[in-house]
Amino acid sequence: MLIVGVTGGIGVGKSTVSYLLGERGAVVIDVDGLGREIIAPGGRAVAAVVSRFGERVRGADGGIDRAGLASIVFGDEGQLAALNEISHPIINELLDEAVDAALVEHDPAGLVVIFDMAILVESMLGQETRHPYEVVVTVEAPLEIRLDRLEGRGMERSDAAARIDSQTSDEERRAVAQFVVGNGGDLDQLRVAVDQLWDQLVELNAEREA
Predict the structure, then answer these.
(1) What is the pLDDT at residue 76?
(2) Can you say whether residue 146 is alpha, beta or left, with left for phi > 0 and alpha for psi between -120 and 50 degrees?
(3) What is the pLDDT of residues 173-182, one digit of tens each?
(4) Mean pLDDT of all residues belonging to the chain
(5) Where are the domains of the chain?
(6) Which residues of 109-139 are buried (b: 16+ CB within 10 A; e: fewer)?
(7) What are phi and psi of 83, to 5 degrees?
(8) Which of 64, 80, 85, 98 is the most exposed place for a label (fewest CB within 10 A)?
(9) Superfamily of the domain at 2-209
(10) CA nearest 43: which of 100, 86, 107?
(11) Which ranges of the chain does DSSP label H, i.e. alpha helix?
(12) What pTM was computed for the model?
C-alpha cells in the first residue's frame, strides 16, 4: 500500500487531480471533508468546540456554525491553534479508520490511497496517524488562472487574491513534494499529466512491495 498526500493552494485543482486518480483506481479520502464532518450535527468535535468557544458557535441544527467559527479563528493564530488542537487529532482518527476500511475492501498489494488535503504543509494531518502519507504530490497553476477559476466560482477577485496570499506558497509545498502536477491548461491536458503521475505512483508502490 502507498499513501499519497495531494495538496495545493486554492484554485489549483488539487481535488480534481485526486478525483482523476480515483478514476484510475486509487482510494481517495477527502481530508477537508472530514474536517467539515466532525463539526456537523452529531460530529465528534462538536461538544469540544462548543466547550472551547462557547454556545455562540453552535448552529441551529446542533452542529457548529462554520461561518461563525471562522469569524473567530480567521486571522487569530491563538484561536486557530486552539481549534486545531481539538480538530486535528479527531481528523487523524478518522483517517486511520478510513484506511483500515480500505484495507478490508481492497487487496493491500498495489493499493494506492490518496489524502486530498489543503493544509498538508501547515499541519500534522495525515502524519500523526497509524497510516501516515509517505509521498507528497503538489498541484500548481499560474496565478491568473487561479484567480479566473475562483472568480468563476463567485468569489470577488480581490478576495481570491487575498486568500491565495494568506496561504502557504508554491515554493514551500514544492519543498516537501516528490511530484509536482501543473494544472494551467484544460481538463484533457490534466488527464495526461495525471496518467503520467499514476504510472509513477504505481511503479513506486511496486518497488516498495518488491
Answers:
(1) 84
(2) alpha
(3) 999 999 999 9
(4) 94
(5) 2-209
(6) eebbbbbbbbbbbebebbeebebbbebbbbb
(7) -65, -45
(8) 85
(9) P-loop containing nucleotide triphosphate hydrolases (3.40.50.300)
(10) 86
(11) 14-23, 31-37, 46-53, 66-73, 77-105, 143-152, 157-166, 170-176, 187-209
(12) 0.93
**Residue 58 pLDDT:** 95
Q: Residue 180 burial (CB < 10 Å; 0-12/13-18/19+)?
A: middle
How many Cα atoms within 13 Å fall on the side-chain side of residue 99?
22
Tell me the HSE value of 147 on the side-chain side, using a 13 A CA sphere. Answer: 10
Q: Do residues 11 and 164 lie in contact, with contact meaning Cβ atoms separated by under 8 Å?
A: yes
Question: Residue ranges of the chain with pLDDT lower than 70?
Answer: none
DSSP reduced 3-state for 140: strand
Closest CA to 11 of 148, 194, 170, 166: 148
